[in-house]
């Protein structure tokens, strides 16, 4: 559970007296205590504990805390799970704080002044914070009620600022940083304080307004920040620089925050900052520095709650994997597995999203991969089986697919082809289930419902904010004279017209977007349909070749040809679900295909496949099997009918940083003579390969703005020879 740190006391710079300032002569000591639930005496972890001097900490898994304090300090104990408690330090004795858990429904806070406007406002704001993470609509509704007038009283500028700050918190949690920015700005305009400015800088970062975020954080550093606030600002700067790929400045700011957190015993921040510094070093290739900070974060996380420790162990295990330290990776993941079982026992609904690495099935799969990387195939097998079993029980088809395929490869590697084939059949079945059931039904439905839910939350948020503003305007003008009320009516007419115009624009935009999305979906479906159509002409001729080899009792040639043909078919099928594959993989497929054709027609042609040494293969992608139909035409309709031995040349060349050309040249009989040689039956049949490829290119160019261009021309003046030039753009 995440907890929101709220400021205990707002100390204004003006009006301070010498009696209000802390005297430096007081003696500091370490105050120890424990926070428990009043009814059950059960300890509560991750509770925010703060004193008015700025020191901050949280409770550990046993509900215990230690904080530097002085006699007379006021201690605030806060959490979303219960109402705030305040305690004045009287002596150096250990203390026990008992709190009342909130029910989550209704109003969690009850005060002596609950019937006054001030009391109701605070109750509604506290209720909004309590429901913030579970129900956005209800939380916004509480904010709306908080700013409504009570018995003729109006809310103050400070209360307005709190209300809009709470709205910003809601927006930020529910993934609406753009709305959060507006609400935090409004809150600051009503009553500025440092915490709100920090939240605004965070919202800028989450909305990808990185320069605005950096400027806001740097401006905060000029203010009189508390220790915890300084840590937040430096951490925020580090996060922003990390987001814009500036590791030097990111680590520098993380380190500044870590130094402050260490000096003032801000324990949770010490752990997080060590972990973040390690992550930046790891991504930058500084392995030794990353290992040192990961070691720190791992030791610190152990002193927090079990889930935090497991999360950190997983990060360190990933680090070990990237650096091929497989023994330590296996050790950490094995520890994580046993701890995950305890966490799942306590957590009724463990997170099982596709991106969640903290699941038993994923950890077993990672352990197996670590063994495989060391060629310890037999040790990997039990973990792959456990991964598959866990994935089946939790309906995690992604892990089940990966683990089943890996198990098949392992069995093949140790020579157990029977089990390899059995596992591969199981893998194919999982693939069918994953792509048919999940992709066509669950994935699309889940994604669509999620988008609708987010839009609905956004509409509800905007509507509640409009009602909030309407209440504010009504409250501001209710004591004005009649002429001002008439002016207000006129303004409302204008506002209504503007809202109607905006609604019409929004409706038109929604319809336009819907049509565009439908068109995109249709194109994707058409591409998928075309990809699944194998070239029957090639398969038929290939099988005839095998048959001819067998007829000539050339079993060796038949077996060799069939083996290479099956390798090509497997590669084609593996890439059949991909819209684009790396250019390097397409070259491999093409070389294998040309090799097969040459094997069949050795006396008809020779071939060369050349790749420009300056071509950056890793930077370009291409639709799978886009080039094969052109090569097939060159062999079957050009070179095959040539009396003397011909030549096929395939050349890959990078024109500039964004463009690659692929030239397929043959000195065959040419397109004109080829048409004359066709039989009547061949003339009646349509070229499925070339027809499909033209359709694919048309759809791709429509979707990606002229990504592929193809030109076909004769090589010689006598119309013999053919040259196909295919131009491929990066984006």
Keywords:
Immunoglobulin-like, Serine Threonine Protein Phosphatase 5, Tetratricopeptide repeat, Heat Shock Protein 90, 5-stranded mixed beta sheet, 60% helix, 12% strand, globular, disordered N terminus
Mean pLDDT, all residues: 77
Beta percentage is: 5-15%
Classify the secondary structure makeup into a structural class: alpha+beta
With strands numbered from the N-terminus, the spatial order across the biggest sheet is 9-11-12-14-13
Short description:
By secondary structure, this protein is α+β, with helices and mostly antiparallel strands. It is built from 24 helices and 14 strands. Among the domains are: about 20-100, Sandwich (Immunoglobulin-like), CATH 2.60.40; about 195-305, Serine Threonine Protein Phosphatase 5, Tetratricopeptide repeat (Alpha Horseshoe); about 580-730, Histidine kinase-like ATPase, C-terminal domain (Heat Shock Protein 90).
């Amino acid at each position: 559970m995440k907890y929101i740190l709220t400021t205990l006391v707002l100390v204004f710079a003006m009006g301070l007296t010498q009696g209000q300032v802390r005297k430096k002569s007081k003696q500091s000591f370490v105050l120890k205590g424990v926070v428990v639930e009043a009814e059950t005496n059960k300890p509560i972890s991750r509770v925010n504990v703060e004193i008015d001097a700025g020191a901050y900490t949280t409770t550990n898994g046993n509900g215990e805390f230690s904080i530097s304090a002085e006699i007379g300090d006021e201690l605030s104990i806060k959490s979303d799970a219960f109402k705030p408690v305040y305690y004045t330090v009287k002596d150096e004795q250990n203390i026990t704080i008992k709190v009342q858990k909130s029910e989550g429904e209704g109003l969690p806070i009850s005060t002596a002044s609950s019937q006054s406007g001030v009391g109701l406002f605070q109750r509604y704001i506290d209720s909004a914070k309590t429901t913030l993470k579970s129900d956005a609509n209800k939380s916004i509704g509480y904010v709306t009620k908080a700013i409504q007038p009570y018995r003729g009283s109006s809310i103050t500028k400070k209360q307005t600022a709190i209300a809009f700050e709470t709205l910003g918190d809601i927006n930020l949690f529910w993934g609406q940083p753009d709305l959060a920015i507006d609400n935090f700005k409004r809150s600051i305009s009503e009553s500025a304080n440092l915490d709100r400015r920090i939240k605004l800088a965070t919202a800028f970062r989450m909305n990808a307004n990185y320069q605005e975020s950096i400027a806001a954080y740097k401006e905060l550093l000029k203010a009189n920040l508390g220790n915890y606030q300084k840590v937040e600002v430096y951490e925020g700067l580090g996060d922003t620089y990390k987001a814009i790929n500036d590791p030097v400045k990111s680590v520098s700011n993380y380190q500044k925050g870590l130094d402050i957190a260490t000096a003032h015993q801000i324990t949770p921040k010490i752990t997080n900052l060590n972990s973040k510094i390690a992550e930046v070093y790891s991504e930058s290739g500084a392995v030794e520095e990353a290992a040192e900070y990961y070691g720190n974060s791992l030791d610190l996380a152990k002193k927090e709650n079990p889930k935090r420790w497991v999360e950190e162990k997983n990060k360190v295990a990933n680090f070990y994997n990237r650096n091929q330290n497989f023994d330590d990776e296996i050790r950490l993941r094995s520890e994580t597995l046993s701890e995950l079982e305890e966490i799942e026992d306590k957590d009724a609904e463990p997170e099982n999203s596709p991106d969640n690495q903290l699941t038993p099935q994923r950890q077993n799969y990672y352990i197996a991969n670590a063994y495989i990387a060391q060629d310890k195939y037999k040790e990997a097998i039990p973990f792959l089986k456990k991964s598959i079993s866990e994935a089946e029980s939790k309906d995690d088809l992604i892990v089940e697919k990966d683990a089943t395929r890996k198990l098949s490869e392992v069995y093949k590697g140790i020579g157990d082809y029977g089990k390899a084939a059995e596992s591969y059949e199981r893998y194919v079945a999982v693939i069918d289930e994953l792509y048919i059931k999940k992709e066509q039904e669950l994935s699309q439905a889940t994604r669509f419902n999620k988008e609708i839910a987010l839009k609905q939350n956004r509409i509800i948020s905007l509507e509640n904010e409009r009602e909030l503003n309407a209440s504010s305007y009504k409250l501001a003008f209710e004591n004005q004279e009649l002429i001002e009320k008439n002016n207000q009516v006129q303004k409302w007419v204008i506002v209504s017209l503007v809202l109607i115009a905006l609604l019409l624009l929004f409706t038109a935009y929604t319809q336009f977007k819907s049509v565009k999305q439908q068109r995109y979906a249709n194109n994707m479906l058409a591409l998928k349909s075309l990809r699944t159509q194998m070239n029957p002409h090639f398969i038929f001729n290939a099988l005839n070749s095998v048959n001819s080899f067998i007829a000539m009792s050339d079993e060796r040639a038949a077996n060799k040809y069939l083996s290479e043909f099956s390798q090509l078919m497997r590669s084609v099928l593996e890439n059949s679900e991909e819209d684009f594959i790396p250019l390097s993989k397409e070259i491999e497929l093409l070389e294998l295909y040309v090799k097969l054709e040459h094997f069949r027609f050795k006396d008809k042609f020779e071939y060369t496949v050349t790749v420009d040494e300056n071509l950056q293969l890793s930077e370009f992608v291409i639709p799978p099997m886009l080039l094969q139909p052109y090569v097939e035409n060159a062999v079957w309709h050009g070179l095959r009918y040539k009396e003397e031995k011909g030549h096929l040349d395939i050349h890959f060349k990078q024109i500039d940083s964004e463009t690659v050309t692929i030239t397929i040249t043959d000195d065959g009989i040419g397109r004109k003579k080829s048409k004359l040689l066709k039989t009547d039956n061949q003339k009646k049949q349509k070229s499925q390969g070339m027809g499909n490829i033209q359709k694919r290119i048309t759809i791709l160019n429509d979707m990606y703005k002229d990504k592929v261009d193809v030109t076909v021309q004769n090589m010689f003046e006598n119309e013999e020879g053919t040259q196909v030039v295919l131009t491929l753009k990066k984006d």
